[in-house]
Each structure stands twice: as structure tokens, then as C-alpha cells.
């Protein structure tokens, strides 16, 4: 995957991948190599989880702003970035096991998970695997409404339709056009162009399977998992998604959402200074 660096006014160019920090590797449950980086010497661990067809470099501006005060961990999920491809089932639950393999290897305590987009579902499952050592979760434009659970028959039909829309043949063009179609202000056109290109170069098999499995997860397992986190604090920072706080609270989730008006789905890249200000304020409120 490519690396995104700021130029001006929230726009980015592509340069060499990853940060200057050395990448480490740990084996996941199925022996796939999972790449991660650790930065900072703070006591509170912040664990960053990227979204679909992205990688750990999408958090660079948050890492730069936080590493002086916190212990930062950024991961590449299996099939993304520098992590291995040797997996058959790219599911949300298996991605969560990738995260947990790093958490367990580093013996992290009181973890604050931060997930973007699909990464918020991975974060949810990873927190369930590690509830006793989870301090809070941050959903970055990831949690929207709480969907109705589909029946097995509905899920089968749903998967058929998904695979028609998202398939290995023509994957690069499909993903490029898909990302370009998402909402973004005109001022972010260069950023979105580069992100669309970057995401479209992800491995087609990984992109297809993880995208389909993510959508099935939403209508099969998501609501069950929400019921398992108890009163764990969940802070949303949203732009294109519009989660209903009351709906989540009525569901028993200790949820608060903060709106960022203007930026696209990639708000941590498009408006890093504003995003970091909000994020740091909420981190401090947890302490």
C-alpha cells in the first residue's frame, strides 16, 4: 500500500510506504504474519485499526500527534499493507484475532481501540476478545444505524447480490469508482483520487472476500456483539455516517457521537488538525 503525506489544505500525495519506525511481525491464530508498529513511551496503549483495503499508514497524522504522550500501536490486518495473504477466510472475526495476537504478544493492558470504517467492526470483536483489558473504543466514521438481523435465507440472497457487485474480475476499476463515488467536498478531490487509487491496488481476493464478509457481518453478528460490551465507553467521531446516540443507548451501549461537519469518510486524513483536537479532548476525558 502507498503512504499518504500532507501537502497543504488537507490534501495528500503518495510517497514511500509506512513510517520510519521498524515494522515488527507476530503470527496470528492461523500462522499468517501480522505487521505492526509500536511508537511512543506513554502508559496508555492506543491501538489503531484501519479500514477496508487500507493500512496502518492511514493513521500517520494521529500517530505523530500522540506518540509523545501515549503508547501507539498500528496494525496491518491480514491481507493488507505488510501483513501476509495466506488466509482463506477474511472475516471480521479473523481480523479481530489478528489484533488480539498483537495485543497478547505485547501484553497490553487497558487498551483504547480506535477503528476506522470496517475497522470499527474489527475493533468491536477485538474488544470482546479482550474485555477485561479494554478501556474504551473510538469509532471513526464507522458506526451508523443498528441494522435488523437478516434470516439465513435473506443472508444467502444478500451474499449473491454482493458478489455480483463486488468480484475479483475488474476489482481495481470497481473499487476505484466506488471510492470516487463516496461523498467528499471538492476541496478533497486530490485526496480522494489518491485514496481511490491506493485502495484499488489492494489484493483482489482479499478485497472481495473481506468486503462481502464485512457486509454479511453487519446483518448477522453486529447486533449480537453490541450486547456483549456492557457499559464500555464508545466514542464516535463521524462525518458521512450519522449514528443515532439514542438508538445505541436504548440498545444498552454507552455511546456518544461527535460530528465533524465537512470532511469525507476519511476525516482523519482530510482534516487531521480538527480531528486530532477532538480525539485528544475525548482521550483526556477518559483519564
Question: Rg from C-alpha positions?
Answer: 18 Å
CATH fold field value: Rossmann fold
CATH class: Alpha Beta
The unreliable regions are: 1-18
Count of individual beta strands: 10
Q: Count the DSSP helices.
A: 11
The mean pLDDT is 91
CATH superfamily: Alpha/Beta hydrolase fold, catalytic domain
Share in helix: 40-55%
Shape: globular
> How large a portion of the residues is in β-strands, by DSSP E?
15-25%
Largest sheet: 8 strands, mixed
Number of domains in the coordinates?
A: 1
Order of helices and strands: EEEEEHEHEHEHHHHHEHEHH
Report on the architecture of this protein.
The chain is of the alpha/beta class and 287 residues long. It has a single domain (3-286), classed as 3-Layer(aba) Sandwich (Rossmann fold). 41% of the residues lie in helices and 20% in strands. It contains 11 helices and 10 strands. It has helices at 60-66, 92-106, 118-129, 152-165, 171-181, 189-200, 204-220, 222-226, 245-250, 267-270, 272-286; strands spanning 3-8, 11-15, 24-27, 33-39, 45-49, 71-76, 111-116, 134-140, 234-238, 255-259. The strands form 2 sheets. The protein has an 8-stranded mixed β-sheet with strand order 3-4-6-5-7-8-9-10, with helices on both faces. Helix 1 crosses helix 11 (272-286) and helix 4 runs antiparallel to helix 7 (204-220). The protein is globular, with a radius of gyration of 18 Å. The model is unreliable at 1-18 (pLDDT under 50).
Brief sketch in words of this structure:
This protein has 287 residues and is α/β, with parallel strands linked by helices. It contains eleven helices and ten strands. The protein has one domain (3-286): Rossmann fold (3-Layer(aba) Sandwich), CATH 3.40.50.1820.
